[in-house]
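Progress against Task 2.4 (sequence-to-structure conversion) is shown through the following example record, which the project officer requested during the mid-term review.
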Amino acid sequence: MDADTVGLSNLQRQVLYAADDIGRPKVEAAAARLTDLNANVTVTPHPVMLKPDNARALVAGYDLVLDGTDDFATRFAVNAACVAEGKPLVSGAIGRWTGQVGVFTGKPCYQCLVSETPPDAETCAVVGVVGALAGVVGSMMALEAVKLIAGAGEPLTGRLWVYDGLAGDSRTVRIGADPHCPVCG
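Structure tokens generated for the chain above:
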């Protein structure tokens, strides 16, 4: 789901796109690439931006949602929709040299972790990202999705995996439910 088009800056961090895709709708290019990888998958592109007024309708038809957006308004909207619709959310974020992945299935929810947009919030467009870091976090998000779908292992439910690409370190922290959370409290 994305209303944007492929830009040159996407090529170094998003493996679904090639130089020939520049200017093409992201969902169209992604669907074509995924179908090329495996003709047995069904890809339903949504060339729209998720917003509070359409979020519930967009997530309602799916069993699991993965969010890799880089703005808090969208993250809050997808989280609220997932909580309202009872859908698990795999959330991934990157910035500069660090990344994180969390799984939210009701309480605690993403907004328990981040209650409001930080005043000094940085986006990928502002601070940039290392392309390989997007691959690490994206792979971890995919692994968490597979674990949830297959009922295998111990998903990061209620926990946040934090990766420091410069140090090569990672740690996992528990996330507590906020009893005053406006979404799940």
